[in-house]
Amino acid sequence: MASPRFSLHRTSALAVALLVLLGLSVLAAGSYAAEEEKGILADLISRALSTPASRVSIGAIDGALSADATVRDLKIADRDGVWLSVNRVRIVWRRLALLQRRLEIDQLDIDQMDMPRRPVPAEAPVSGEDQPLLPELPLRVDIKQFTLARADFGQPVLGVASSFSTGGNAKLGPPSEGLQLFLDAQRLDRPATLNVRLNLVPQTQRLDLMVNLDEPAGGIISELGNIPGRPPVKLKINGSGVLDAFNAKLVFDAGEGIGANGDATVNREGAGRRLGFNLAAEASGMLPDVAAPVFAGTTRLTGAVLFADDGAVSIQGINLAAAAARLDIAGALSAAQIADIRVSAQNTPNTEGGALAKDVRIKRFAFDAHIAGPLDAPEIASTLDVEDARLPSVSLGRLEANLTMTPNGSIANTSTLLNLSADARVKGLELENPALAQAVGREARFTARGVSTTRGVIDFQTFELKSETLSAGFKGRAGRAELRGRLEVSAPDLARFGAVAGLALKGEATLKADLEGTPRSNRFTAQIDAAADRFATGITPVDGLYGGALTLAGGVRLDADGGFGFSDLRLTGPNASARVDGAVTPKSADLTALLRIPELSKADKRATGRAEIAAHVTGALAQPDATATISLRDASLLGRPVPRLDVVAEATNLRDAPDAHLRLDGEIDRKPARGAVHIARPKEGGLVIDGADIAIGSVTAQGGVALDPAHFAAGQFSLHAKNLDDLSALALEKLSGSLDAEVSLAHADTRQDAAIKANAEKIGGFGLGLDRLAADLALTDVYRHPIVSGSLAADEARFGGQAISRVRLNAKGGADASDIALSAAARGFNLDMRAKVVAADPVRLEIAKFEATRGGDRIALAQPAAIVIRDGGADFRSLTLSLDGGRVTIDGRAGSKLDLKALFRAIPLSAGDVFSPGLGLSGTLEGEATIGGAPAAPTGPYRFRISQLAAPQTRNAGLPPIDVDASGRLEGTRTTLEATLKVGQSGALRVSGSAPLAASGPLDLGLKGNLDAGVANRSLSTAGRRVTGAIAVEGRLTGTAQQPSASGSATMSNGAFEDAILGVRLTAIHARLVAQGDHVTIENASAVTRNGGAITAGGSIRLDPAGGFPGDIHVRGQNAQLVRSSLATAELNFDINLSGPLVRDPRVGGRIDILSLDIPIPDRLPGSLQPLPGTRHIDPTPTAAARLAIAAKAKRGRGAAAFNAALDLTIDVPGRIRVHGRGLNAQLGGNLRLTGTLAQPDPVGAFHLISGDLRLLTSDLDFTRANLTFAGDLSPELDFLATTQAGGASVSVAITGDPSDPQFVFTSSPDMPQDEILSRLLFGAPSGQLSPTQALALAQAAAIYSGGNDALEGLRRSLGLGTASQSNNPLSKFLGDRVSLGVHTGATAAETGVGMNITIYKQLKARGVIDATGNVSVGVGAEHEW
């Protein structure tokens, strides 16, 4: 684009420059010849309009020194040609008036001026361009009449092509005369007018002003203002009066929502004048959608400014108030021209969360600026503060910025310099595009320090941009006319830019570039020095050649004329090097490129040898030609020798009509490889591939095809391959099988015919397979009246893990129709179709049968249907499909435009298994859709309802069936959605917004609803857990389906959690999670334990599934009783931090203080009480079945844990740990450091005995060792040892194992059997000397400490103390079958004793018991077995 300063200021000065001709002639005293005068004039014009690339030509000058001068055929051109021409300029004036410093022009006429475009900017600064254009003007200027008969402007100049004529007069004189302007202009191509009347007389201080503009729709003002709809525009300004009492009114109208009206006054107030104005405007209609709501309704501009007679100015207040923003200006300018002015702008909250516009919300926006100091050398300091801003494509948490500018002199002097200082910081940055968000990061800093000229050229000492992913800096000079300096960029982690590049980038990179250029003309050069370490792209061949250490060095340039070039630019990697050198310009091209690969195996292990790719571009920028060669030497491909292989391409006119000849020559696997082909794209359109003659081993391909601009094809092509393995080397894939195929294409006028013959056997390669193919098909008049004849048979086709055992297509063509039969079978799937193609006008496809089945599911045509093919589309008339009792009906048309209506009635979702086995959906679909628009951008409303929706994922999670009620509208590439999801009786969620129809588009969905937390109990209850509470969800989902970005919150209130097995019970659970972008923040989370303790949590999680959802969560507990069960009861203080990939291998660190830990050792049942071997559960309840499944899974063992946290915990005991039960009573203390992983913890330290003893009935033992350690699964392990002297022996008791199932081991010195040890320990005597009472006590001890110990079980059996149901007491047998006597053992004395059972009659029995305490009980009862 042209510089406005050049094209407007200098162009308008041309006429004035011509007027100076006479003054120059007078100064020359008439002594110059005509040619010299013409040279002076040409030199003046050249100075006014020149750039290094501009040319000025004048056809003729008549009467250069007379009072009536004419300039003819004035033309100004730049490097792109003439941009301004004037056919004739005539000036009638009074030459001698210049001696009195007056310019008097009687007549100034311009006949025709043409300006088709703006001039091309100068590539470099123009010498003297900032000097005054003309010498000092005379004291008086009087133009009595001027006319411009016609001026034609091209569209690039004013936005629309336009033609004008104008005329008027002007006078500028001393204060007594003032300024007068009379101007009338009208468009010649449209009815638009502009009238200006201006009269200002300083001596009388009177001002009269009138401006009247009336322009129709599509005019220049609406185009320049970019007013939507380009409406008609009317503007009226009227003002009149002396400057002590002046009034003016303005009216502007540009259609609905765009307009302004108001007034301004100037009145005398004491020793000064007061300017007041009040303007009301409607501006929302001319603003972009994103900004329009900020200025919705009426925007008002008001103000008052006091101008003192001594030159001082007081800005009492200038205020701009809009619907969602406000601007205020206040301050003063002293008589000495010292400024103190403040400017502030801020948002005006119009919602609870701040200022809201369409797709924009800003919680806080504040801009402040202070202008202080002399007016011609002011110091400017400004700040900007933005908080919680959300825009359509970006949001940020906080932006803080400041800028100061301090001049070292008057800004009116071009030599003055301005010291600049700028800083900015962004936090919480979130981009809608996930790839850019990952590349940019969430925080960024900007710093700039420099010195600027008044022309805007800045010398930067510091210019830095730093983010989480990038650091960039520039030092040097920058401006529109000049760029010179060094740019340095570093990226420590290229993986953050992988999504932007579409590659799996890795490594780090640095770049240094010396820059030079002229930005305003788009001319740049750069000398580059870049390097990357540990570089990778995820593309195996590229990484093999360039992975690791990579360097890029050389020169790059971009020319102002669109040309470009490279100066020895080299890309060097460990195993390849590339070089580009040369240039392409509008006049010529000479560019070479060379890639060398010394060893191909570095790119692909299936290849060896060396390769080279060379290219040479010639011609010119507009029509480049090129040659390229790919060469392989001493190579092998897939183990096949390739001593030489060359591919040569010669192409011409690459931009407009590329035409290329390719040749192949070499040897592959000791077989010749030869070939040639011609490829062209004619300028008028279409494609030509002909002259193909290729032979590689047994494989030959010949023929060609031409596709005309109307897409009709003609030609023949054949492929014969006795053994496709001959192509394996080139494909780098083992191929097999044989193939013979011929394709013929012909057309005449609008008729297109095609014939295909193919036979193949044992085809294999690239994961595809085909045992047999036989095809012989002929198609005539394909586009108008198609007739199909022939057959196709395929057996055992394999692709994508799927197998189709059989495909049969038979077509019988007649004069007017073709009968088609299609059948297929694959792994339980069967397809059968019968149809007729009727070659009528229009063509009809009459479907008699369509049926697809898999197992018990079936999709079939409910009734015969006809599809009409016409105008490139298809008409459907009540096409009805039956899906397992449901129906889909389609009516309408599909083609370049869609007009379809679909009805869905009682569709079982299980029918989806027909085409996707194992999909496993259940539920019923009802709905309808009306679809219009284009196939690539459908439009129209839809609604559907799904009852009792369930999927394998929801079933596994224990969720109840879901009811979905949804509606929306297709809108091109997107769809709107309003849906309600009811989750059983547990609440509902509402989803609204829009989503892309393609997976790659941006999401914009809102989610709101309430759920009962108990919805999770169906899955939790199998493990003995239960949760309650209310969950409120409100949020928004953006980003893409692959990389979603969330915002909003989820709140849980009045929650509770209970684990019956561990005894965990949490109440008063309250939590709030807030999502912003790809981060979820735990704003607060708290719960109360059963003893009144407290648990709190906070932190954040990043929504990155591939990264394991990395985050940082802090959990604190105070006096929290987390466990209360038969295994243990614990009260803790803790401070734990979880960081890293939270669902994979996070780090768990922190401190746990055990306030109290109570570990009871339970009194257990006899060790003989075990489930009967071979017990089988018949028809278990769902809960029992789930528990049995868990037990079976545990029995089978577990694989590697998906979640394996790294541990770094310190466990201390400021309180106590108590272990008690079965006579054991011990208190422990100490500390523990827990490292390793959750799967393999590594405890360092243990808990040791503080005090304790062991009482075995009548004996007391002292502990010599007591440790509490932790096993691999963090369950406590006992390690206790107690000793005493008893019965002449030294006795030791070891207690080890799990507290819930401890092992008691008795040893002695001298060594004795364990039953003897127990007898001496309890009674100080051998077991053979025990009394009956002591024997009962010994039995009681055996029951308590047996725990499955074989030695103590033997003691019980030796005493005849079996279980109640399995007594071996000889006395019970002696009394007969009706009377039984037995000794019962239990965990306490009251449970141990002698019992007698007497059978009175069948199931009627009497029973008596005497326990070890002497208590007696008698009873009568009945028994019945079933």
TrEMBL record:
Signal peptide interval: 1-28
CC terms in the record's Gene Ontology section: plasma membrane
GO biological process, one term: protein secretion
Matches recorded under Pfam families: TamB
Protein topology in the membrane: Single-pass membrane protein
Domain called Translocation and assembly module TamB C-terminal: residue spans: 1089-1405
Chief place where the protein resides: membrane
Cross-referenced InterPro entries: TamB_C (IPR007452)
Taxonomy, superkingdom: Bacteria
Residue ranges that the Swiss-Prot or TrEMBL entry lists as coiled coil: none
Keywords of the record: Membrane, Signal, Transmembrane, Transmembrane helix
Annotated localization: Membrane
Name this polypeptide is given: Translocation and assembly module TamB C-terminal domain-containing protein
